[in-house]
Amino acid sequence: MNECEGNDIRNGFESFCEIRGVAIGSDIADKYVYELNKTIEILNKDINHFAGYNTPSPQLKGDIAEFWHSDTHNIYAALNDSKFRTLVDRSHDFASADVTSNWDEKFGLKYLKNGQDSAKAQSWSYFERYCKYKAESGNSDISFIDFLKERGFENENILNDPIYNGQVRIIPSDQLKEAIEYLRFKIAKENLIRPDQVQRYQDTLDNLSSKITDPDGISSVELSAEDAKTIAEIAKEGKFDAKNFGFATEDLVELEHVLKQGIKAGTSAAIITMVLKTAPVVYDMLQQLISQGKIDESKFKELGFAAISGGTEGFIRGFISASIVTGCESGLFGDALKTVSPNVVAGLTVIFYSTMKDSFYVAKGTMSKYELANNLSRNLFVTGCALGFGTLTQVMLPAIPGAYLLGNFVGSFVGSFAYIAWDHAFMSFCVETGFTMFGLVKQDYTLPDSVLKEIGIDIFEFDQYLIDEYKIDEFHIDEYEGDFITVLRRGVIGVHQVGYSLV
Predict the structure, then answer these.
(1) What single DSSP character describes residue 162?
(2) Which is it for the CA torsion 267, 268, 270, 275, positive or negative?
(3) Which of residues 201 and 346 earns the better pLDDT score?
(4) Quick one: CA torsion of 310, 312, 316, 322, rounded to 10 degrees?
(5) Which is more confident, 46 or 292?
(6) Is residue 502 within a helix (H) or strand (E), and if so which, with residue range?
(7) What is the torsional sign of CA 197, 200, 203, 207?
(8) What is the DSSP string of 206-272?
(9) Are the C-beta atoms of residues 492 and 437 closer than 8 Å to each other?
(10) For residues 257 and 260, what is the distance between their CA atoms, to the nearest angstrom?
(11) Residue of 180 and 7 predicted with greater confidence
(12) pLDDT (mean) for 227-252
């Protein structure tokens, strides 16, 4: 492999590292907004599931409340990137929970006409439910022991225990104060006359709430009995829209969520980029160890530099791309940008960041504007190829995991080699025609010092050169025979720069 081919491969790999890190950031942000939208849509679906029901709204509001609390919790969990989720169980087993969770906590809901009734229902004992069953079922002959056995309980000493033991008791937000007062009254009263009844009321009071709260402190949205009834009316018509209740990405996502996703994505991108950047150095070190039996100390310095530079730039690119995608797709920047492609954002981020970095070098004087223009055109070309190949591979091989990644990898190398070939052809055209590409290719035929020295001209530096008056009486031309002739030609002498060079 010659040096030119090596540079082409290196450039292709460098491009892949940059694009991959940014793509990771965009993908994380895209999945974040997708998950948030999905939880909102589930709320719409669950509430409108009751379309066409003939159940009166006062009775239906309890079912509505179950989905409301579970789904609104999940919306805010997705918004805050929490792993905790809840689920409406819809079990009809005895004293079963209405809402379960992935952190092993259970929730029971009672949405009755007032706080006292809701608190009382949450405090039922096994014996009270036994008496209620006998009165409503007509099976008055069933014993308490048989009642328990039919429901999977063998211990008959749970007579006065609360049937919802171990559950958080959820009631309407506008009934919470009344319910607490009722339970405190019952505890004080029963403590005097029936101490054996105190425990079930105390347990209910200790676990009473108007919302679901997970270990991260994320809660469902409180719901009053009246609001639950109103939503039930809308649900029966199938016209519930979460947006009308403040559940839209543009209403939920704030700057802090954008920054949080940016940091998360930036960290992931930094790790990925650092690994990719250091991989070639590690490979060289292993190859050197195998062939020479030792590793050059400079390789360790190179490894450290690659890790630091790769991690830092990866974080910045990932942060920028994720922040932009989150803001756009959530509607924070307006509805027009909600459908923006994460891949497009990733590509633009690579180009923008590289151009800003090169612009800084130009301002410092360490890079020419022609080099900046060359890098910009190269980044546009290679990034376009990488994203295009990624999309094409994903479409052609949808069943293969990592198809897009493979396309990115191939596209980066193809784009790098193709750009070199195109740039050589373009510069040849400029050499032959004198075309400056609107000032992006420098056509300067001032002879460089190296060329002047080669053709035998002495050069020197000066601040000011004064020419003395010179007069000659006569001039004799001696015959001269040169030992050599140096021929100059027009050609590429720098990045997007045409001038005279030695043959």
Answers:
(1) B
(2) positive
(3) 201
(4) 70
(5) 46
(6) strand 497-502
(7) negative
(8) HTEESS-B-TTS-BPPP--HHHHHHHHHHHHTT---GGGGT-SHHHH--HHHHHHHHHHHHHHHHHH
(9) no
(10) 5
(11) 180
(12) 93
Contact 177, 138 (CB under 8 A): no
HSE (side-chain half, CA atoms, 13 Å) at 261: 31
Tokens 């750009």 -> residue: 419
Side-by-side strand order, sheet with 86-88: 86-88, 99-101, 106-109, 167-170, 208-209
One-letter amino acid for residue 215 of the chain: P
How far apart (Å, rounded) are the C-alpha atoms in residues 63 and 60?
Answer: 5
Q: Structure tokens of 152?
A: 């999977």
Q: How far apart are CA 108 and CA 169, in angstroms?
A: 5
Decide if pLDDT at 225 tops 70: yes
- Tokens linked to 146: 């048989």
DSSP, residue by residue, 330-353: TTTT-GGGTT--HHHHHHHHHHHH
Amino acid present at 121: A
Residue type, 171: I
The CA distances from residue 90 to 64, 70, 97, 100, 262, in Å, are: 12, 12, 8, 10, 38
In angstroms, the CA 42 to CA 247 distance is 11
Locus of tokens 């101490």: 195
- How many whole angstroms separate alpha carbon 421 and alpha carbon 371? 17
Contact at 8 Å (CB) between 373 and 440?
yes
CA distance 87 to 334: 32
Residue whose pair of structure tokens reads 């590292």 in the numeric block: 17
Amino acid (one-letter) located at 194: R
Tell me the C-alpha distance between 110 and 122, whole Å: 7
The answer to whether the beta carbons of residues 196 and 144 sit under 8 Å apart is no
Query: Does 317 or 258 have the greater pLDDT score?
Result: 258
Distance (Å, whole) CA 118 – CA 223: 14
Give the DSSP letter string of 26-64.
Answer: HHHHHHHHHHHHHHHHHHHHHHHTTTT--S-HHHHHHHH
Structure tokens at 357: 């970095």
Q: What is the mean pLDDT of residues 68-85?
A: 95
Given a cut of 60, is residue 309 above it in pLDDT? no
Task: Name residue 452's amino acid.
Answer: L
The distance in angstroms from the start CA to the end CA of the chain is 25
The residues, any chain, with a CB within 8 Å of residue 423's CB and separated by 6 or more, are: 374, 378
Amino acid at 68: W
How far is 223 from 237, CA to CA, in rounded Å? Answer: 20
User: Which residue type does 252 have?
Assistant: L
